[in-house]
Each structure stands twice: as C-alpha cells, then as structure tokens.
Hints:
The protein is mainly alpha-helical and 728 residues long. The chain contains 39 helices and 6 strands.
Amino acid sequence: KPAEARQLFEKTPKRTAITWSSLVSGYCKIGCEVESFQLFYEMQYEGYRPSQFTLGSVLRLCSIKGLLSRAEQIHGFAVKTHFDTDVFVVTGLIDVYAKCSRIIEAESLFDKISDGKNHVTWTAMINGYSLNGDFVRAIQCFKGMRENGSEANQYTFPGVLSACTALSNLGFGAQVHGCIVNGGFSANVFVQSSLVDMYTKCGDLSSAWRVIESMEVNDVISWNAMIVGCVRQGFSDKALSLFREMHSKDMKLDEFTYPSVLNALASKNDAKNGYSLHSLVIKSGFGSYTLVSNALIDMYAKQNNLDSAYKLFDFLVEKDLISWTSLITGYAHNGSHEEALKLFCEMRVNGTHPDQVVASSVLSSCAELACLDLGQQIHGIAIKSGHDSSLSVDNSLLSLYAHCGYLEYADRVFNFMKVRNVISWTALIIGYAQNGKGVNSLQLYDQMIASGVKPDYVTFIGLLFACSHAGLTEQGQSFFESMSTNYGITPGPDHYACMVDLLGRSGKFQEAEDLLGKMPVVPDATVWKSLLAACRLHGNVELAKRASTALIELDPQDSVSYVMLSNTYSAVGKWKEAAHVRRKMKSKGVRKEPGCSWMEVNGRVHVFMSEDRGHPSTNEIFLKIEEIITRIKEVGYVPDVSFALHDINEEGKVDGLSYHSEKLAVAFGLICLPLGRPIRVYKNIRVCGDCHTAMKFVSAVYGRRIVLRDSNCFHHFRDGVCSCLDYW
C-alpha cells in the first residue's frame, strides 16, 4: 500500500537515509517509475545520500522497465559518489545494460571487477550473454563462474541452459543438468522447465520426459515444451496423447498449449479432431487470442480447408504478420496462387511488412503463374527488408526467374548466394533443363557434387528431365542407376516417367515397356502420359492404344488419354479412328481443357484461343497473321498439316494451323511491343510442331527474340533457332 507508506513517511518527525531508501525501494518494487525517481531526487535535495541499496533498487526498476537513459544517469551518479566499485551497484548496472542490448558496456563493467564477483554478478552476465544471442560466451562465462568457485543457483541455470539450447549443445546441457542435481536444484520448477525446454529442442525427448516425471507439480510450461518437441520431431500422435493427458489431469491450459496441438493436427491432416479442438478453444475462452487464432488458420490451411481458414482470418480484429503469413502460405501450398498474390497485395496495403516466409511463398506463386513483374517487385521488397540474404527467399527467386525464362537473372541470384543447399542447386539444374540447356544442367550437377552437396529425390527428376530433352539417353540411364546404387534413393513414379519419356523420345519403345514391367508399383498417370507423348511423336499407334487404355482405367474423366490417342491417329492420317475417339470422349462426358496462350503487355494479361476473334484488336491481329504467313513462306516455311486435328481439305488444314493461339499471341506481340523487346508467350498445353517451326522462321524474318513457355518447357527462339534444338 504505497499511499499509506507515503503518509506514514510524511508524518515521521525525523527522517533518515534509511527511511528514504525504504520508501524509494518500495515504489521501485511496485514499478512506479515517476514516483520512484521523484523520491530519489527529493532525497538528495533534502541532503540525504542514497546508499548502494537505494541505487540497486532504482537500477532494478530500470532493468525491468528498460529505462536505459535513466540507468545511464544512475551510472553517472554512481561514478561521482564512488559507488561504481560496489559489487551490488555494478551488478545492477550489468543487468540493466544487458537487458537494454548494451552488452559491451555490461561486459566492460564485469571485467573491471577484479575481485569480489559474487554469484549474482556472474548470473547477470551469463543471462546477459544469452539474452543478447552470444551463447558461446554465456557458456564460457558459466565455466568461468565454476572455476571461480561461485555457486550457481536457480536464476543461473536457465540462462546457461538457454545457451545450450540455442547451440544445440546437448552434451554440455547434460553436464549442466549434473550441476543442477549436485547443487540441489533438481526439484526447482523454474529450473526443471528450462531442462525440459533444452532437452526437447535438442531432440532428446526421453530425457525431457524423465524430467517431467520427476516433477512434483504438473507444470504447464514444461508440458507445453514437451508437446512442441514431439511435434517438431514428427511424433504427432504422442503430442496429442500428451494433450489428452493434460486435459485429464485438469491442468490449466494456456494460449501456448493449443497452437502446438493444432500444429500436430495439421501435420496429421486430422480434420475431425481439428474441429473438436476448435470447439474446445472457443469453450475455454481462447478463441480471441491472436496466437491461438493464427494456429487455427494455419491448421485449416494445411488441411486444405481454405474457406474455414479465411473465415477465421476475416474474423480477426487485429491481424499480425503471422496471421497473414499463415493464410498466404496456405493458399500458395494448396495451389491457389492467384488468391495468395491477392492476399499479399492486401497485406501490403494494410501496412504489414512481409518476412522471409511469406516472401518465399509469394515468390513461389509468382513462379507458378509466371508473374515476372510482380515477382520482381517482391524481389525489391525483399532487398529493402533485408531478406535477400535469406536462403528460402533466394531459392524461391531462383525458381521464379528460371520458371519465367530469365536464366541470366537466375544465374545472378545463384552466384550472389552466400549459402547454397541442395534446393538451390536443384532449382537451377531444373531451370537449365526447362530452358533447353540440358548440357548445362549436367555440368552444374558436377559442380554440385564437387562442392560436397548430395543430390536428393528432386535433383534426379531435374537431371532425367534434362537428359530427356537433350537426347542424352545413355547419361540418363546412368543417372537413373546411380540413384539407388550411389545415393540410396529409390526411384519414384516421376523418375520412371522421365525414363519412359527419355526412351520413348529416342524410339526405344521396347526398353520403355521393359522398364514399365520392372516398376515396383503400378505405373501412374504421369508415366502413361509420357509414353503416349512419345507414341504421338513416332506414330506408334498400337502402343498408344494400350497406354491410353491404361490411362483411362486410372482416371476415366481425364481428357489427356483421349486427346493424345486422337492426335496420334491424326498424325498418321487415320482420321476415322481419330474421330471415333473424340466421339467416344464426348459420349462419356469428358471435357478437354481448351488450349490457350497468353502474354502480358503493360501490366495487362491478354488471352488467346485458337481462331479467337474476341480480342479488341482482332482485325489487326488477323491481318498480321496473313503478313507473317506470307513472309515466312517466302523463306521456306511449309505448313505441317500432320498437326491438323480434323479431316478437312488441305486449304482448311493450313488455315486452321495459321490461327493457333500461340501464333495469334506472337502476332499481337509484333504489333504492340517495341523492337528489341522479347515477345514472351505462355501456353497451357504443349506447342504443336507446326507452330514450333513457324516461330523459328518468325524470329529470323522479324529479327525478334520469342520466348514460348508451354506445359512442358521453355522454347527460346532467336535467329531461326530454338533452344531445344528441335528435340522437345
């Protein structure tokens, strides 16, 4: 009761330094900053000299409140009054400087104490180092304390255990545990919870559980740490079991308990229990806690329940960075890339600055949608925010530029990276492969191995893709064999699909079929589609029929099996069979994804369909097409009617080929893009052979660089040559 103490003080007939110090200390203990310092100055004005205990109380208040400037004033007063050599005062200064991120000043004061360092002084310094992230020095300081003969206490051990945790130094942490037992602090809840935290974060769950079992009281902080440890190591069932045990023991769950359990449910994709836990959150009154709401958003997003995730997000009164990040990454990871980018723009308008997690996610979405302009803006934001040195952001930038056909930018990002992991190397290997530089992919792989980085499952997909699209059959077979023999990686459906594509492209159908027979699992749709594509290329109708039948059995509503078989028939002139397949497809209600091409001009996306007359510039585009066809025919272009899909007269086939969506897009690019600027076109299905040939002629006749990305890879046309060297 500070008011009563003040009244009693005012009535005291004879005040002393002790009564003044008592009053100042009392106000400091209850955190009254203004009154404490007012009394401290009045005390001196009245002629009473503060003692070292008075200064200690005031410094303790500064430490708790983070009052650095006030502490510096007290420091100056201590120097003037020669209290700067008093261990009690110096310890208070060390504590406040350390907690105000002025560790150098704290260290300087600590080093000046030649003799008389007590356990409080050592503890302040150890905790200061840990608090400021200098964990190695925290451990060294603890060792110095032991060598000095000072005994650690319950306030010392959490600081050094925190350092062990940060450094993942389980060995030294176990030694500290021994000191705790020997010192008689093994029953202290504060110390026990620090031990549990250290063991769980260092991956030793069994030791953590033994500490919990030895506890006389059920400490919710320790149980929370145990649950977090189980979730991080993938033991979701154990985490849920611990939560149920907490609930059965009637432990007081807090806002830190629920997020960990929700993370466990998210990793298990357990929707039923997710709803149950959400209900419990609401009943227990934690529904309004931002930390818990963010975990719920994250859980629903990871379970692909984006509607529930968005409703929770929309309901939040205060949305922090984690709220935005949970929802944006959820949309991105579930393939809803447009929504992810829209949310990111909303987040920026809201004034929330992105961190490396959300920057990485939206860059990945930009890569998937080939949104280069927005991706470059996000790259600029990352640089301004200091996230350009983040490994995850750099890896996403690599994928962005490679997916958008800007290999020179991808190379630049890669070369500036201070740290590279297997994802970095793999992203560029795949980037080279997709952009028609398969040989460069293999050279980069050799550099990766030389640097000591081991390939993973995805790396070999990139290598096999590179070999397939560069016609490197022998190298591809060698990589496929080395997966299991050299690296212990079991080939998956994607690897088999690449191998079937590799063998099929080179016309080795018997070897491709033999490989299918050796697969340890039933071939999936990707494998059969690769075989169908090869059959279309070489006109292997019989094998195409078998592959199409297998594909229809896997997914009767997938239009690819019908379309590719029909195209194979068309390529060899079997028009009746082709028409029969299309009628069959129609009778079963299977719908084909319509082919379309698009390009971005001045921030606006223009979409084109085959023979499309819906564009505002249709007349100019069709006139340009006539001009293009005339000019490229003059230098040798001959329409390849084998890519016509309908049995009509020769002139009709040629006209149909002339107005394919990618040709319309290129014509529009020639009309509206200035000379010197590349024409970049994106197509949702594979480019046809006739359009591929036409693009080469257009690039030569008009002196323009054309970059066409289809569903399979990039084609860079320049001076009449394509980067794929016609092997695609």
